[in-house]
Design a protein that fits this description.
Helices cover 27% and strands 26% of the residues. It has 327 residues and is an alpha/beta fold. It folds into 2 domains: 164 residues, Quinone Oxidoreductase, Chain A, domain 1, CATH 3.90.180.10; 135 residues, NAD(P)-binding Rossmann-like Domain (Rossmann fold, 3-Layer(aba) Sandwich). α4 packs across α9. The chain starts with a strand and ends in a 5-residue tail after the last strand.
C-alpha cells in the first residue's frame, strides 16, 4: 500500500510517499481502508519533533513510528475472528490515538479502540477530523470547565479546527459565545453560533472591559496572566497548548486563588472515556447540531503541501488528505 513516510524530523519536505507492506490484522482487530485522514497542527509538531520533550515518546534521534496521522474515516475492509461490532463495508471513523498510521491507504485497530460507525449524513472528509477539534473541545468544555447555560465564554482562535467546533459546542451547551478570529473569518464564526466576534487584528480581547466565566485559548497565543483580568471571580482559563508557563500557573492556581488555569492531554485519557464523548459527538452530528468545517482536501501524494498549509497557522477549520485508494 502507499503511505506517507518520515524517517527524520524537520520541515514538510521530510514527508515522502512510499510503497510499504499492508498491515496485517489479528483476532479482534479490523482492517480499515482510509478514505480521509485529518492533518492537524499536532501532526506538524510531531513531524518537527517539537517540543523536544515530546521526543521521549516519539523517538530521541528519529521517529520510531514512521507513518503519522491519527484521525481517520473510511470503510471496514476486513475483520479478524471474534469481531462482533463491525463487518466489511461498514463506514467508520475514529482515531488511532498513539498508534498513528493514518497517512496511508489502510490501518488496523482493535474493535474496542476509538472507532465508531459514521452517521449517514456525514461525509468521510467531515468525519475524519471529529477526534481532533470536537473531541478535545468536549473534554475541555464539559469536563474541565463544567460549562453551564448562561455562562459567558471567549474562544480565541475561533476559526481553527478546535475553534470552529468549540463555538458550536459552547452554543449548544447554552453559553453566550464570543469568538476571536481574523477579519476574513468573522462571518463564518458568527454563522457557527458565536453571539459576538472580536477581530484580533483590530482589538486586543483582554482590553475590552468584558468579563468571562471561561477563556478558552485554542491556539495557545495568550496566557493565564494576560487573561486573568477578564475572568470572573471563579473564572477558568483553558488551553490545549501546554507550556512551562501554563504548567506553573496550573500548579499555582490549584492551590491559590479562585481563578484557575487548566490543561488536559485529551488523547491520553482512557479509551473508554474518549469513547463516551465520541458517542455524544456522533449523536450531535447525526442530529445536525454539529458540523465539521473542512478548509482544504489534498491527495495523499500532496501530504507535504498539506503540512505546509497547516504550518501557516491560517487554516479555516480542518485539513484532510485522501489516500490514493479513495482519491
Amino acid at each position: 500500500m502507499k503511505a506517507a513516510i518520515y524517517t527524520t524530523y524537520g520541515s514538510a519536505d521530510v514527508l515522502t510517499l512510499e510503497e510499504v507492506k499492508k498491515p496485517s490484522f489479528a483476532d479482534g482487530e479490523v482492517l480499515v481502508q482510509i478514505h480521509a485522514a485529518s492533518v492537524t497542527a499536532a501532526d506538524t509538531m510531531m513531524r518537527r519533533g517539537s517540543p523536544y520533550l515530546g521526543r521521549l515518546m516519539l523517538g530521541l534521534r528519529r521517529p520510531k513510528q514512521q507513518i503519522l496521522g491519527t484521525g481517520f474515516a473510511g470503510v471496514i475492509a476486513a475483520v479478524g475472528a471474534n469481531v462482533s461490532l463491525f463487518k466489511p463495508g461498514d463506514r467508520v471513523f475514529g482515531e488511532t490515538v498513539f498508534g498513528f498510521g493514518t497517512y496511508a491507504e489502510f490501518t488496523v485497530l482493535k474493535e474496542q479502540d476509538l472507532i465508531l460507525s459514521m452517521p449517514e449524513n456525514t461525509s468521510f472528509d467531515e468525519a475524519a477530523s471529529i477526534c481532533d477539534g470536537p473531541l478535545t473541545d468536549m473534554n475541555f468544555l464539559r469536563n474541565l470547565a463544567n460549562i453551564q447555560p448562561g455562562q459567558r465564554i471567549l474562544i480565541n482562535g475561533a476559526s481553527g479546527s478546535l475553534g470552529t467546533a468549540a463555538v458550536q459546542l459552547a452554543a449548544h451547551f447554552g453559553a453566550h459565545v464570543t469568538g476571536v478570529c481574523s477579519t476574513a473569518n468573522m462571518d463564518m464564526v458568527r454563522d457557527l453560533g458565536a453571539h459576538q466576534v472580536i477581530d484580533y487584528t483590530q482589538v486586543d480581547f483582554t482590553q475590552t472591559g468584558q468579563r468571562f466565566d471561561i477563556v478558552y485559548d485554542t491556539v495557545g497565543k495568550s496566557s493565564f496572566a494576560q487573561s486573568k483580568r477578564i475572568l470572573t471571580p471563579d473564572g477558568v482559563y483553558l488551553s490545549p497548548v501546554l507550556s512551562c508557563a501554563l504548567l506553573f500557573q496550573m500548579l499555582r492556581t490549584s492551590v491559590f486563588g479562585r481563578k484557575k488555569a487548566k490543561f488536559s492531554a485529551t488523547g491520553m485519557l482512557p479509551v473508554a472515556d474518549l469513547h463516551k464523548m465520541l458517542v455524544d459527538l456522533r449523536g450531535m452530528l447525526a442530529a445536525g447540531h454539529l458540523i465539521s468545517v473542512v478548509d482544504r482536501r489534498y491527495k495523499l501524494a500532496q501530504i507535504a503541501e498539506a503540512h505546509r498549509y497547516v504550518d501557516t497557522g491560517h487554516k479555516r477549520g480542518n485539513v484532510v488528505i485522501a489516500p490514493a485508494c479513495a482519491a
